[in-house]
Amino acid sequence: MKTILKLLVLAVMFTGVNSYAIEGNEDFRLHVIKNEGKQISFSLNKVKAAKVSIYEKDGTLIYFEKIKGTEDGILRTFSLEEFPEGDYLIVVENENKKLTHEISVTDKNTTLSTTAISEVYKNNLDEKNTSVASR
Predict the structure, then answer these.
(1) Residue 69 CB: number of other CB atoms within 10 A?
(2) pLDDT > 90: what percent of the chain?
(3) What is the rounded CA–CA span in Å between residue 53 and residue 56?
């Protein structure tokens, strides 16, 4: 009976660990973890490096950072306490893809859109790899 109970406890523990994983591990996708007060947190699974830019709606760059992650990915929290009320764009990109999400800052909180408003796949072909075979 004790063995069955121990196995059951282990099974529940592993289920909890697996359910914490964010879906979409295979693709470059920004996952919103929380919007709390004037802080936003997000993760990029399986991404080792990315560039993050924040723009005003008129296209003015107000923040840029190159982020390095681990084998598991990148976890990042931004405090937007000093940002005036308004809408902003956050652009996250790696060598293959560029994502744009919207950030809305109000007097009391900040919201990061969970769905990208733009996803652009980059063409990584250089001139050496563009030959075409014909018969």
Answers:
(1) 17
(2) 32
(3) 10
- pTM recorded for the entire structure: 0.70
Residue 106 makes CB contacts below 8 A (sequence gap 6+) with: 85
Q: What angle is formed at CA 68 by the lines to CA 64 and CA 74, rounded to 5 degrees?
A: 95
pLDDT tens-place string over residues 94-129: 988 999 999 999 988 888 898 999 999 888 666 555
Phi, then psi, of 129 in degrees rounded to 5:
-105, 25
Q: Sort strands 49-56 and 73-79 into parallel, antiparallel or unpaired.
A: unpaired
The position carrying tokens 């993050």 is 52
Query: Which string of DSSP letters, residue by residue, matches 4-44?
Result: HHHHHHHHHHHHHHHHHSPS-TTS--EEEEEEETTEEEEEE
3-state SS of 66-119 is EEECCCCEEEEEEECCCCCCEEEEEEEECCCEEEEEEEEECCCCEEECCCCCEE
Unique residue bearing structure tokens 């014909």: 134
